[in-house]
Amino acid sequence: MTIPKRPWASDLPVVERIRVHLRVDGTEYDVFVPPHFTLLRVLRDELGRTGTKEGCGGDGHCGACTVLLDDEPVVSCLMLAAQAQGRSIVTIEGLAGDDGLDPLQQAFVDYGAVQCGFCSPGMILSAKALLIANPRPSEQEIREALVGNLCRCTGYVKIVRAVASVAGVDSAPDQE
Length: 176
Description:
Strand content: 5-15%
Mean pLDDT: 91
Distance between the termini: 58 Å
Number of helices: 6
CATH architecture of the largest domain: Roll
CATH superfamily of the largest domain: Beta-grasp domain
Helix content: 25-40%
Largest sheet: 5 strands, mixed
Strand order of the largest sheet: 2-1-5-3-4
CATH topology of the largest domain: Ubiquitin-like (UB roll)
Structural class: alpha+beta
Number of strands: 5
Shape: elongated
Radius of gyration: 19 Å
C-alpha cells in the first residue's frame, strides 16, 4: 500500500530555527529551536529534563511544569524558550547536589509528601522559591506559595508539613 503524498505539504513554510542560550542546572546550552517552542518543550525534548512534567496540556493551571527562572517559579508550558534567553534555570534534576538530595526533596520523601510523584517536581520547586525568598515562612505563606500547584493524590497536609520541616516552623497536625 502506498501512502499518498499530502498535496499541501510542499506549500508549508519552512520554520526558521533560532538560537537560544540557556543556563540549565548550572550548565550552559545553545539550542536551535523554532521560535514557538516553549521552555517546557526545550527542557524535555531538547535537553532531556523529563522531571519537568506537562500536566495541563499547556494551559498553565496545574504547576507540574514549574521550574525556577532566576530563583522565581515559572510555569514553563506558558513561557517561550526565547524568553529565557541568557537566564538561569533550575529543574528538579538540578536541585540535588553531589552529596545527595536537596533537604526539601528529602523532606518530601521523609514526610510521605510524594505519592504518585507527578506533581512533586513542580511542588518542590515552588516551595524552594519560597524558601529562597523567605527562609522561615508561616504555614499560611507555604500554602499560598503552593496555590498554583495541583495535586490529585493528597490533601496537601504532608506537602505543607515537609516544607515547614525544612523551614523549621510548625504546621497543623495531620488532618488528611
